[in-house]
Every structure is written in C-alpha cells, then in structure tokens.
C-alpha cells in the first residue's frame, strides 16, 4: 500500500515480540514482522550499492532479532538499532508502506 503524499507514521508499538505496528497519519495501521523488516534493510552493508545484489545472509540474522531503538530520520524515514548489532539502515516511509504485512496490504498485493 502506498500512503498518500505527506503521510507519515504517527504511532509505533509492538504486538507481541514479533510484530511492529505503525499507525499512519492517513488512518492506516501497518504491521511488520520484525525479522522480515531486519532482512529488508537496504543499507550498503546489506545490499551492494553498485549491483543491488543482497549482501546480507538471512542465516546470519537470529530468529529472535528485535528492535532496540527506533528513531525518526528527518521527515522521511525511521532508523532502527537491532539486537544483532546492526544500526546503519534507514527505512523510508515509502519502504515501510511497501513492506506492510497487514491483512489489507497482503490482500492488495495478492490481487495486483
């Protein structure tokens, strides 16, 4: 799901140890499995800057990885410090919307 222009997260919470919930300014409630979000990091350590090839080996990310700290980055994204020591990625609001795993977004993706 793509948020409307200017939409941004207004709230952040956890639903159990494995799901991060983002409330958006346009009323959407997004859900992200935390390990999937960690695996989707697009920083230069996780994705080759020249080729776009993944550098992160999924087996190197613990099954119980958790966000330790989440902070806003300007008006365009969030920075996450992970329990596996990784802290260089920025998740743009657009990326977070694309990665949403709520039932509404999953259904929209299946029909696309």
Key traits:
single chain, 112 residues, alpha+beta, NE0471 N-terminal domain-like, three-stranded antiparallel sheet, 3 helices, 6 strands, 19% helix, globular
Specify the structural class: alpha+beta
Identify low-pLDDT runs: none
Percent range for β-strand residues = 25-35%
Radius of gyration: 14 Å
Shape-level CATH architecture? 2-Layer Sandwich
Shape: globular
Q: Which CATH class applies here?
A: Alpha Beta
**What share of the residues lie within helices?**
10-25%
CATH T-level topology: NE0471 N-terminal domain-like
Terminal CA distance = 11 Å
Q: What's the helix count?
A: 3
| Quantity of strands, as a count | 6
Main sheet summary: 3 strands, antiparallel
Q: Give helix and strand order, one letter per element, not per position.
A: EEEHEEEHH
Number of domains: 1
* Mean pLDDT score: 92
Spatial order of the strands forming the largest sheet: 1-2-3
